[in-house]
Amino acid sequence: MLKDFKALREQVRSGAPKTVAVACAHDAHTLEAVLHASAEGILRYLLVGHRDEIVAIGRELGHEIAADAIVDADTDEEAARIAVGLIREGKADFLQKGYMQTATILKAVVNKETGIGTGGVISHTAIIEIAGYHKLLGVADGGMIPHPDLEQKKGILRNAVEAFRALGYDRPLVAAVCAAETVSPKIQETVDAAALKEAALAGEFGSCYVEGPISVDLALDKESCEIKKYDSPVSGNTDILLVPYMAVGNIFVKGLLLYGNTRMVGIVTGAKCPIALNSRSASFEEKYYSLMACAAICR
């Protein structure tokens, strides 16, 4: 169990450094995160983008970036293609999105001829550190698939569970959250949640436990479980919230970030390597810990 991002960082520090390929690395916050992790001996890097800008930003940050660590690229599309190619060639272990649109790098990732897709669902998992909760919490999928059907939810669940197992969780506890903990044929997400629980019990996702449908208070708060006399392995101890729709996860996480003393990292899994995927306006800290999460997962 990882209590916080500090514990995540220490886990990464304990292993051999991984190499990140950064697409459109000509961005101050992205470079600050990468160079800081490199200076700590945690990561190695290959930077793809506008060479002159990358060198200039590096110097502003107090670093002289070696020429052979930069691959020049004129356009976002070219940078995405080259960065993905570095993964295919075994020169880098995972990807980070720099100053570019998310759709651009994902298009390169899923390209059938030159990409790194696996043919399965590619999905987003937010990993959040919440003041008052006793460990890091995953939220999937709040950033990729707007209205997933049951099969897509299985893919989202599988990706999130595999990521948490790679982080050291032997049996991730998943809550397929809905508005209530009862199944209603009129509310499709409750039907899907029950089906996901059944599939998990049948061993479809490997070592994990899935509860659903379950309300978010029962998933995260032990006192609520005691009051409602609700008993489950996930009761107040959830590792991953599987949300019914993208908007639910997006609103939940952003609300916590604004008002809940919360920090977040964003990763994409389901391809041949994890991808650190943050908003172009994301802080240095968010990008730094997203790098930590990806490095830990691809070990």
Description of the structure:
The chain is α/β, with parallel strands linked by helices and 299 residues long. It folds into two domains: 5-117 and 271-297, Rossmann fold (3-Layer(aba) Sandwich); 126-263, Isopropylmalate Dehydrogenase (3-Layer(aba) Sandwich), CATH 3.40.718. It contains eleven helices and eleven strands. The protein has helices spanning 5-13, 28-39, 51-60, 76-88, 102-110, 150-166, 188-201, 216-220, 222-228, 246-259, 284-297, and strands at residues 18-23, 43-49, 70-72, 94-97, 123-130, 137-140, 173-177, 209-214, 240-242, 262-269, 275-276. The chain has an eleven-stranded mixed sheet with strand order 3-2-1-4-11-10-5-6-9-7-8, sandwiched between helices. A hairpin with a 6-residue loop joins strand 5 and strand 6. Helix 4 crosses helix 5. It starts with a helix and ends with a helix. The model has no long low-confidence stretch (mean pLDDT 95).
Give me a quick take on this structure.
The protein has 299 residues and is α/β, with parallel strands linked by helices. The chain is 41% helix and 19% strand. It has 11 helices and 11 strands.
Secondary-structure topology with pairs:
Elements: H1 5-13, E1 18-23, H2 28-39, E2 43-49, H3 51-60, E3 70-72, H4 76-88, E4 94-97, H5 102-110, E5 123-130, E6 137-140, H6 150-166, E7 173-177, H7 188-201, E8 209-214, H8 216-220, H9 222-228, E9 240-242, H10 246-259, E10 262-269, E11 275-276, H11 284-297
Parallel strand pairs: 1-2, 1-4, 2-3, 4-11, 6-9, 7-8, 7-9
Antiparallel strand pairs: 5-6, 5-10, 10-11
